[in-house]
Automatic annotation (TrEMBL):
Bias type Basic and acidic residues, positions: 719-734
Superkingdom assignment: Eukaryota
SMART domains the UniProt entry points to: TPR
Ranges of the TPR repeats in the UniProt entry: 231-264, 270-303, 483-516, 551-584, 585-618, 619-652, 653-686
UniProt region (Disordered), positions on chain: 110-131, 719-753
Key words, A-Z: TPR repeat
Short name of any one Pfam family annotated for the protein: TPR_16
Name of protein: Intraflagellar transport 88 homolog
Lineage of origin: Eukaryota, Metazoa, Chordata, Craniata, Vertebrata
Gene3D superfamilies per the UniProt record, alphabetical: Tetratricopeptide repeat domain (1.25.40.10)
């Protein structure tokens, strides 16, 4: 307590703070004569501090001053010496060493505050790469680089290269382990690196569909207790068994993984439960799948699981279950903000710039895709369960529409109504379809346009072109940018043979939607009618780039090349059609015709024979084959084709005469005679048959020859009389027309000709969706439904 001083009551605690010590006043030092004199003389220099010499003691030893005298060292005169230096070297004062001051300054050296006279710094000590630890570090870096290269190779789509890199990483990692064991540092093995190498190798095996190797690698990881959480990899093993369709083992491993994952990892457990439900669904165990999906919908609902739950209840035929599952499906929150945030609400240019920037960013695209997927699942589920949950599909659709109207997907209600009308169309109940679509005439423009488009298409199919044109105009007025409505309008104009105007509507449809294949196809047909073959070919070539392997499009291209005179190109395109539809008899017949025009008889025979094999009722193919075998003197082969023609056209005597002629040319006179006799019984007045009967009877010495000769004369006379009557009738009609022309004052009557049909016929009708499931039709070019060359 002796060092504790208590304040006196009268003492001022804050006194002394304003006192000034003139010692610290340095502003007048320049004018202080004594201070300036001290600076210019030796009196301002500090005494030189030297270190203790070896073998001496500091106590009582006088030190040399700057004046050469020895004075005792007082404690305040300098810092005590703490170390020894060599003879002639002075130890620097530690408090000023960093600033470049040394004791040698008094001996003629200059001040070097920046250390410029010290010379270059000594080189860094190099690493000894031969050291075991350095070798191990280098090998670890190589392994990590190989793992990274393997992952990058897989991301770029080269799975084989990724597998090779993963195998190389595994080999180097094993060499690294052996290196540590040899150096005696086995306790410091990098387990994380080993785990990464094995996991990457197993993944690459799986990606290359080397499932046994992948399973073995996963087993190595799972069985090693030194790795952290290896049980999760049993999910990957379950996925492999699922790919192999070994569903019981897949479920086993999924459940093992589920048991080893704690409840803290809720999201992971939900995904595994979803996998288990999908496996049960594939196995047909719908009750077990329903249990899994319902658990997920209670814990963490999502669109995919809800849709799977609807499918399972539909498979079991549980009406109430389907309704409950559908309600759960439409109640799943998407977690997507309202799209109004992307609409500029102010005139602030910076805000609008930000909105434009985020309007098409990846986040917005992800939200849009997620919403589109949800709407697709809901629409599909509604169309699936509507006929099953009620006594009629109309009642089922009405229930689904009511549920959707009360949910967050209220805009899908109109689309469901459109699908209801489409279902009526598939059932060929056109009246109900028309009534359903007409209910949309007083709704908003978007739905009205879709309904009117479908109505236009229905009336077009019914060949009520006036109504089709009316509803096409209604659809266009509601939405001028609806390509399906423009296509339907172009169709109605096309059937009125106003091809130029039809082409304008088809062009406008393509301007609004460049992927409108119906408009592009119909535009090509319109150009063909206008005889603008090059433009038509350009349209169909563009369409072929969009609709790969479309036999309709390739047939049109082949026909255009034929009309342009390039038969080789036509043959090449028809060969592409054959690669898509190898059993189309009309395409095969067309190929035969083109090869025949090119003079390639053998190729023509091949394709005509193939066409006859698939469709033995084409009279043109039969005629060509029969004539070919007659020309090549293979009359026996020609008989079967003419007999087939006789079955197809039994009232045509020429086919039966050809059969008899084949028998006669092949030397089978008895069979030829029998055939001629059968023909004579069916056609007793046929002069050609009687002539051959007379000739064969004469050659064979038959007694019926006189009878046949009498009948021949009678038939020839009758034929001559008929020809004279026809000739006289023609002459009288010619004289009457001549007199009429002479009597008319130069008035001429126009001759009406029927328009020529396209050589390639077919129906090309699409169901397209404008907003829900709107329908747009293409033009029918002919009566036949399959695309073929005529």
């Amino acid at each position: 307590m002796e060092n504790v001083h208590l304040a006196v009551e009268d003492e001022d605690l804050y006194s002394g703070y304003n006192d000034f010590n003139s010692t610290f006043f340095t502003e007048e030092l320049e004018n202080d004569i004594g201070f300036q004199q001290a600076l210019r003389t030796s009196q301002g220099r500090r005494p030189l501090m030297t270190a203790k010499l070896p073998g001496t003691a500091i106590g009582g030893r006088p030190l040399a001053s700057s004046f050469g005298s020895r004075v005792p060292l007082a404690s305040s005169a300098g810092r005590p010496v703490t170390g020894a230096v060599q003879e002639g070297a002075a130890r620097p004062m530690t408090s000023i060493r960093a600033a470049g001051y040394t004791s040698t300054m008094m001996r003629g050296s200059t001040l070097d505050t920046l250390g410029q006279h010290r010379g270059p710094a000594p080189p860094l000590e190099g690493k000894n790469e031969d050291a075991p630890e350095e070798k191990i570090k280098i090998m670890e870096k190589k392994v990590n680089d190989l793992i990274e290269e393997s992952c990058m190779a897989y991301s770029s789509g080269t799975s084989q290269l990724a597998l090779e890199k993963a195998k190389e990483a595994r080999r180097k990692e094993q060499a690294l382990v052996r290196q540590r064991e040899q150096s005696g540092t086995a306790d410091h093995i990098n387990l994380d690196l080993t785990y990464s190498v094995l996991l990457n190798l197993a993944n690459q095996y799986e990606h290359n569909e080397m499932y046994p190797e992948a399973l073995n690698t996963y087993q190595v990881i799972v069985k090693n207790k030194m790795f952290n959480n290896p049980g999760r990899l049993k999910v990957n093993m379950g996925n492999i068994y699922f790919q192999q369709k070994n569903y019981p083992k897949a479920i086993k491993f999924y459940r093992m993984a589920l048991d080893q994952i704690s409840n803290a990892h809720k999201e992971m457990r939900i995904k595994i439960m979803q996998n288990i439900g999908v496996v049960f669904l594939r196995m047909g165990q719908y009750s077990d799948a329903i249990t899994s999906f319902e658990h997920i919908m209670r814990e963490s609902p999502n669109i995919t699981t809800g849709y799977n739950l609807v499918l399972c209840n539909y498979a079991t035929g549980d009406r109430e279950g389907m309704k409950k599952a559908f309600q759960m499906l439409i109640s799943v929150p998407l977690g997507i903000d309202d799209e109004d945030k992307y609409i500029p609400a102010t005139d602030d240019s910076s805000t609008n710039m930000v909105i434009d920037a985020i309007k098409n960013d990846k986040l917005y695209q992800m939200e849009r895709d997620k919403k589109a997927q949800a709407e697709k699942y809901i629409m599909t589920a509604a169309k699936l369960i509507a006929p099953a949950i009620e006594t009629s599909f109309a009642s089922g659709f009405d229930w689904c529409v009511d549920m959707v109207k009360a949910s967050q997907y209220v805009e899908l209600a109109n689309d469901l109504e459109i699908n209801k009308a489409i279902t009526y169309l598939r059932q060929k109940d056109f009246n109900q379809a028309v009534e359903t679509l007409k209910t949309f005439e007083k709704k908003d423009s978007r739905v009205k346009s879709v309904a009117a488009t479908n109505l236009s298409f229905i009336y077009f199919l019914e060949k009520d072109y006036d109504q089709a044109d009316r509803y096409a105009d209604l659809a266009m007025n509601a939405n001028r940018y609806n390509p399906a409505a423009l296509v339907n309008k172009g169709n109605t104009v096309f059937v009125k043979q106003d091809y130029e105007k039809a082409a304008e509507f088809f062009k406008e449809a393509l301007k609004n939607d460049s992927s409108c294949t119906e408009g592009l196809y119909n535009l090509g047909l319109t150009y063909k009618r206008l005889n603008r073959l090059e433009d038509a070919l350009d349209c169909f070539l563009k369409l072929n780039a969009i609709l790969r392997n479309s036999d309709q499009v390739m047939c049109q291209i082949a026909d255009l090349y034929e009309q342009l005179g390039d038969l080789q190109q036509a043959i090449e395109w028809l060969m592409q059609v054959i690669s898509v539809t190898p059993t189309d008899p009309h395409i095969l017949a067309k190929l035969g015709k083109l090869h025949n025009d090119e003079g390639e008889k053998s190729q023509a025979l091949h394709y005509y024979s193939e066409s006859f094999r698939y469709f033995p009722s084409n009279i043109n193919v039969i005629t060509w084959l029969g004539a070919y075998y007659l020309d090549t003197q293979f009359c026996e082969n020609a008989i079967q084709y003419f007999e087939r023609a006789t079955l197809i056209q039994p009232t045509q005597v020429k086919w039966q005469l050809m059969v008899a002629s084949c028998y006669r040319r092949s030397g089978n006179y008895q069979k030829a005679l029998e055939t001629y006799q059968n023909i004579h019984r069916k056609f007793p007045d046929n002069v050609e048959c009687l002539r051959f009967l007379v000739r064969l009877s004469t050659d064979m010495g038959l007694k019926e020859v006189q009878d046949y000769a009498t009948k021949l004369k009678k038939a020839e006379k009758t034929k001559e009389i008929q020809e004279q009557r026809v000739k006289s009738g023609r002459e009288s009609s010619s004289r009457g027309r001549r007199g009429s022309r002479e009597g008319s004052a130069g008035v001429s009557t126009p001759v009406l000709t029927s328009p020529m049909k396209s050589s390639i016929t077919g129906t090309f009708i699409f169901l397209t969706s404008a907003v829900g499931a709107s329908v747009s039709g293409l033009l029918e070019q002919a009566d036949k439904s399959s695309a073929h060359c005529g």
